[in-house]
UniProtKB/TrEMBL annotation:
<keyword id="KW-0315">Glutamine amidotransferase</keyword>
<dbReference type="GO" id="GO:0006207">
    <property type="term" value="P:'de novo' pyrimidine nucleobase biosynthetic process"/>
</dbReference>
<dbReference type="GO" id="GO:0006541">
    <property type="term" value="P:glutamine metabolic process"/>
</dbReference>
<dbReference type="InterPro" id="IPR017926">
    <property type="entry name" value="GATASE"/>
</dbReference>
<dbReference type="Pfam" id="PF00117">
    <property type="entry name" value="GATase"/>
</dbReference>
<comment type="pathway">
    <text>Amino-acid biosynthesis; L-arginine biosynthesis; carbamoyl phosphate from bicarbonate: step 1/1.</text>
</comment>
<comment type="similarity">
    <text>Belongs to the CarA family.</text>
</comment>
<comment type="subunit">
    <text>Heterodimer composed of 2 chains; the small (or glutamine) chain promotes the hydrolysis of glutamine to ammonia, which is used by the large (or ammonia) chain to synthesize carbamoyl phosphate.</text>
</comment>
<dbReference type="InterPro" id="IPR006274">
    <property type="entry name" value="CarbamoylP_synth_ssu"/>
</dbReference>
<feature type="domain" description="Carbamoyl-phosphate synthase small subunit N-terminal">
    <location>
        <begin position="1"/>
        <end position="102"/>
    </location>
</feature>
<dbReference type="Pfam" id="PF00988">
    <property type="entry name" value="CPSase_sm_chain"/>
</dbReference>
<dbReference type="GO" id="GO:0004088">
    <property type="term" value="F:carbamoyl-phosphate synthase (glutamine-hydrolyzing) activity"/>
</dbReference>
<dbReference type="InterPro" id="IPR036480">
    <property type="entry name" value="CarbP_synth_ssu_N_sf"/>
</dbReference>
<dbReference type="InterPro" id="IPR050472">
    <property type="entry name" value="Anth_synth/Amidotransfase"/>
</dbReference>
<protein>
    <recommendedName>
        <fullName>Carbamoyl phosphate synthase arginine-specific small chain</fullName>
        <ecNumber>6.3.5.5</ecNumber>
    </recommendedName>
</protein>
<dbReference type="InterPro" id="IPR002474">
    <property type="entry name" value="CarbamoylP_synth_ssu_N"/>
</dbReference>
<keyword id="KW-0547">Nucleotide-binding</keyword>
Amino acid sequence: MTDPSYRGQILVFTTPLIGNYGVPSNTAPFDAHDVGVVLESQGIQCAAVVVSDVAERFSHYTAAESLASWCQRHDIPGITGVDTRAITRLLRDQGTTLGRITVGSDTSLPAPKADEFWDPSLENLVDQISTKEPYEINPSGSLKIALLDFGAKANILRSLIRRGAAVTVLPWNYDFNAVRDQYDGLFLSNGPGDPTHCMEAALKLRPTLEEWSKPVFGICMGHQIIGMAAGLDAYRMTFGNRGHNQPVLALASSGSIKAGRVYVTSQNHQYALKLQDPFPRGWEPFFINCNDSSIEGIKSTADSGRNVWGVQFHPESAGGPLDTIEMFSDFLAECAAHKYGTVPLKTDETQGVSKMQTLESAPKIEVAA
Ligand SMILES: NC(=O)CC[C@H](N)C(=O)O
């Protein structure tokens, strides 16, 4: 609920009992030295929550308040006592759908018209949530990482600073080309909404993505930005990938990632990069989703002279499995290798499976209309 990528969305929980553990307090401040303890941003980001059975009595040693009181404090509506199974089945048939929560039981009122629903995908949600001013976290860190903030989850910042990086958080549309010499690597964060609203930022980054030899790593929206800058199209999926059990197959080895292995990942996205054959010159698919064959990662090819990669899933999870958490260590090892000339964990192409074989034998690919 605090992941900024959920901004504007009504979340329907499939687990029937929600709120049993209450909500922890996020006692560490979000400032230049820390990014909170457990929550992913300072407030609730989703537009509303739909729960089958909300727990009014909560119990956990870190709990500070109930789900309902937390929602009330943040002015976020919630509804309980509804058949979330029925709503989920509807969403599974027709895909992600505009919705609204209304109060009252007068069924004689006419059903709302299409234009009476607020459509968050029409807005540039990234611009609403991104930092307005640059700021630095852990300034004494040895590796200087710039992070373009499309709506970054706090655990991405934690995962970088825990590994010793100094992170400068920049607004999403900042002209990074002009300041890139000051940094050892660039990170592109996750973020809410339709990535094509950020096309200008993607195109602005092209000189860096084409000329810079230092590492660039993108997650989710960040991965979509890299892909759009590389010339791939982004499309809206009928069924976005959400949840903590999305299997992805690695098509190439790099750092801790081994080609041919399936990793279980945490995901939250409605858009994806469109698979095309051939891939743009100098780029290759990195991961593919085992359920729907959508692209889950791309990377620059070994002969491109660049060191850029992005993943559609969330290696930092929070919540979810930690199968791919070492991708943060890989990123910083690459940055250190570039800066100090040390040797990072290297790509082992010999373990690779045939990419085209994997793509061909995979299930049907969902393509945008
Ligand atoms: N978690 C994210 O960064 C989501 C990216 C994008 N907003 C999508 O829905 O596809």
